[in-house]
Write a structure and sequence with these properties.
With about 375 residues, this protein is α/β, with parallel strands linked by helices. The protein is built from 13 helices and 15 strands. It has helices at about 15-25, 75-85, 100-110, 130-140, 150-155, 205-210, 230-240, 260-265, 285-290, 305-310, 320-330, 335-350, 355-370, and strands spanning about 1-5, 30-35, 35-40, 45, 55-60, 90, 115-120, 145, 165, 190-195, 220-225, 245-250, 265-270, 295-300, 315. The strands form three sheets. A seven-stranded parallel sheet has the order 5-2-1-6-7-8-9, sandwiched between helices. Strands 12-11-10-13-14-15 form a six-stranded parallel sheet, sandwiched between helices. It has a two-stranded antiparallel sheet with strand order 3-4. Strand 14 (about 295-300), helix 10 and strand 15 (about 315) form a beta-alpha-beta unit. The protein is globular. The two termini are about 15 Å apart.
Length: about 375
């Protein structure tokens, strides 16, 4: 089967490992369409990394309205479909986006079977014309993928009646995300590093991490790896609390350096804070840290408790006292620290590998081939 996947998320090199695994599945002839870069709404830029490219083809093509989540699309996509002649068009976008509508119309025109991916885990009504595009995609999709149960429930509530599968968007490759440095063992003379890897944006609840720091021993420090509009806010907050010397900003790193960054911290914290229109949809950095045997602490926002299971600590979102209590548990109980490190990697191996997700996706493709165009 010829599969055309359309995804801006796959400009990230380590995520491309899923495509190598997918290309290994029997009968899959895979082509990826992706832009040369993606502009986040905070102004940061992700440039296409070509890290894991074996077994499938990458078509790098211009994107119109780059950075506009709801409006972007690929003007050369019709030409690409005529060349590739796909049996399946896998659109790695929400159903209310124009990119999904544009690709679905082209798929219908070329008698291919389209599918879309949904991660929106809160019910939201979209105005015209987005609601019209959403309904068109519901009607013409052969199947849909949801990144979590809440997203699947939202699709049903909004009127999608077609075939539906719950599959994570991306897992990790445990041969990439693994511990290659000696295990972290805190000594009294060394800092205990609380790390956060990701975009510095309001939804991630990062002020809670700064607020928790004065409640912890002086040897506890925070390391932020990433860029975003919250940096100045966090710097000001740390200065006002008199802890600026305990907070470090390392900027962004290419994706292939993230595994080492995860190993160089003592615990990874994801303090996401729900909003009326958003709750944490997954928290990929959690499984990256877990795979590297770095213990994780996450807030109660959205999917985080379900992702962690019994392999991490969860605190009430926005509660700095509860977060500091979790950190103190790890400081006071080395056995718990080591146990969470082991349990974290085991949970990833059992649930969140790229190989598992690729196999599940391939099974969906096989099912789609039996559905009439």
């Amino acid at each position: 089967m010829r599969v055309l996947m359309i995804s801006k998320a796959l400009v990230v090199g380590t995520s491309q490992k899923k495509l190598e695994e997918l290309a290994k599945c029997p009968g899959v002839e895979l082509t990826l369409v992706t832009p040369p870069y993606w502009l986040h709404d905070d102004g940061s830029k992700l440039t296409l990394e070509r890290l894991y490219t074996s077994g499938y083809r990458i078509i790098e093509t211009p994107m119109r309205f780059n950075g506009r989540y709801h409006l972007h699309y690929y003007p050369e996509l019709g030409k690409i479909m005529r060349e590739v002649r796909p049996d399946i068009v896998h659109i790695d976008e929400e159903p209310y986006n124009f990119a999904t509508y544009h690709a679905t119309r082209l798929a219908v025109k070329h008698k291919a079977r389209p599918l879309f991916f949904a991660f929106q885990n809160l019910y939201r009504e979209y105005p015209l014309p987005f609601r019209q595009m959403e309904l068109y995609n519901y009607k013409h999709a052969t199947t849909a993928l949801a990144g979590n149960q809440d997203a699947a429930d939202v699709l049903r509530r909004k009127g999608y009646k077609g075939s539906l599968h719950i599959i994570r968007q991306f897992g990790i490759d445990p041969s990439i995300y693994q511990r290659t440095l000696p295990p972290r063992e805190h000594k009294a003379s060394e800092p205990f590093l609380l790390g956060y890897v990701g975009r510095l944006v309001e939804a991630k609840g990062l002020p809670t991490l700064i607020e928790a720091l004065p409640k912890l021993p002086d040897y506890c420090q925070v390391v932020f790896v990433g860029v975003g509009p919250m940096r100045e806010v966090l710097e000001k907050q740390a200065a006002e609390l008199g802890i600026a010397e305990r907070v470090t900003f390392k900027g962004s790193l290419p994706s292939y350096e993230i595994p080492r960054a995860m190993q160089e911290i003592d615990v990874h914290v994801l303090p996401s804070l729900s909003r009326p229109n958003w709750a944490e949809q997954f928290g990929r950095v959690l499984i990256e840290a877990m795979a590297c045997e770095t213990p994780v602490i996450g807030s109660s926002s959205g999917e985080i408790p379900l992702v962690l299971g019994d392999a991490g600590l969860v605190f009430k979102e926005g509660d700095a006292d509860a977060l500091s209590a979790c950190v103190r548990r790890l400081l006071d109980d080395p056995a718990l620290y080591k146990d969470l490190a082991k349990r974290g990697r085991q949970r990833v191996l059992e649930n969140y590998t790229q190989e598992q997700i690729a196999k599940q996706t391939s099974d969906v493709y096989q099912e789609m081939l039996t559905t009439p165009v």
